[in-house]
Amino acid sequence: MNIQFPYQKFEFNIKPQEPLILPSYKGSTLRGGFGNAFKRIVCAIKSKECTDCILKEKCIYSYVFETPPPSDTKIMRKYTSAPHPFIIEPPPEKKRGYTPEDELIFGLTLIGKAIDYLPYFIYTFDELGKMGIGRGRGKYELKEVRSGAEDKVIYSSDTKTLRTFKTDILSFNSVFTNTNTYKPKSLTLNFLTPARIIYKKHLILDLEFHILIRNLLRRLSLLCYFHCGGDTSGWDFKGIIETAQDIKVKKRNLKWYDWERYSSRQETKMKMGGFVGEITFEGNIEPFMPLIKAGEVLHVGKGTGFGLGRYEIK
C-alpha cells in the first residue's frame, strides 16, 4: 500500500500600515479574518448557510472553509463537515502591538486539492489587509509569500504575480509492518501550540500514546480521503491501536493553556484551551514514525485551522 499525501507550506509576510493590536495567540484572528474575507470575495449566495446552499458541493468557499462531505461519501455520513484542507500557523511570539516598522510572518499549509487554490488564499489575505484585522481593524500590506519547500519568493506586492512552486509529498509505504523487528526507542514530542485532543468525548491532559495515535489515524485518514483522493481502508486501525497501547509514557511535562476566541458566527467568546509542553514515550516507536512525522506537518486534535495541535519531534 502506497498512500501519496501532497501538501505545501508557505510563509506570508505582512507589513502593518498602521498600528495593529492583536491577541497573544493570533491563530484565531488570522483564521477568522480570512474566513470573513474569503466568504465576501467568493460566496455567490451570501444570505444562505453552506449546509442549505445548492452550490455547496461546487463552491470554493464551502470546500475550503466548511468542507462538506460529498453526497456520495463512503465515510463520515453522520458528520456535517470534514477536516479543513488548510492550517494557519500563527507567529510564535506573544507580542500584541505592531507598528509600521514591524513585520509579521505566519505560516499556511495547504493539503491535497487545496494547493490549487493558493491564489485565492493570497488574494484573500491581501484584501483582508485592506479591511483590517484585530482591535480597531488595523490595516496591513501583504508584502510577499514564500514557498517553504524551496525557500523562494513566489509572490510579492511589487509584481502581483504568482510564480510556480514545488509540492511536497508525505508517502506512506507499508506502514506498521514487521513491528517486532525494531529495538525499543524513546520519543520526545514538544507541543508548541495548545493541543485539544479528545478521548471518550472529553478533552484530555494526561496524554497516552494510543490516544495520540487514535487521533492521528482519524485525522490523516480523513484528510487523505476527502482532499487527496486516497484510500486508507487497507490500514489495520484496530491492530495499530492495540500495538500503540504497548508504548508507555516515560516522562510527562504537559500543562494546560487556556485562551479564548470570539466567534462572530455564534456571537460569543469560546474557551479553546489545550495542553502544551513535552512528553516522552518509550517502547517500539519505529513503526509509528510515519504517522508521527505526518502529524508534525499536519498537527493533531481539534482547531488545527487556527494552528492548534502543533508539535515538533525532539
Describe the structure.
This protein is α+β, with helices and mostly antiparallel strands and 314 residues long. It has 2 domains: 2-168, no CATH class; 174-313, 2-Layer Sandwich (Alpha-Beta Plaits), CATH 3.30.70.1900. The protein is built from 6 helices and 16 strands. The chain has helices at 27-42, 60-66, 118-131, 209-227, 237-244, 289-298; strands spanning 2-16, 20-21, 86-89, 97-98, 104-111, 140-147, 152-156, 168-173, 185-195, 198-199, 202-203, 248-257, 260-263, 268-271, 274-283, 311-313. Strands 1, 3, 5, 6, 7 and 8 form a 6-stranded antiparallel sheet that branches. Strands 12-15-9-16 form a 4-stranded antiparallel sheet, covered by helices on one side. β6 and β7 form a beta hairpin. α1 (27-42) crosses α3, α4 runs antiparallel to α5 (237-244) and α4 crosses α6. The radius of gyration is 20 Å and the shape is globular. The relative contact order is 0.20. The model has no long low-confidence stretch (mean pLDDT 88).
Name the descriptors.
314 residues; alpha+beta; Alpha-Beta Plaits; 2 domains; six-stranded antiparallel β-sheet; four-stranded antiparallel β-sheet; 6 helices; 24% helix; globular
Give the count of helical stretches.
6
How many domains? The number is 2
Structural class based on helices, strands and sheet pairing: alpha+beta
Residue share in helix: 10-25%
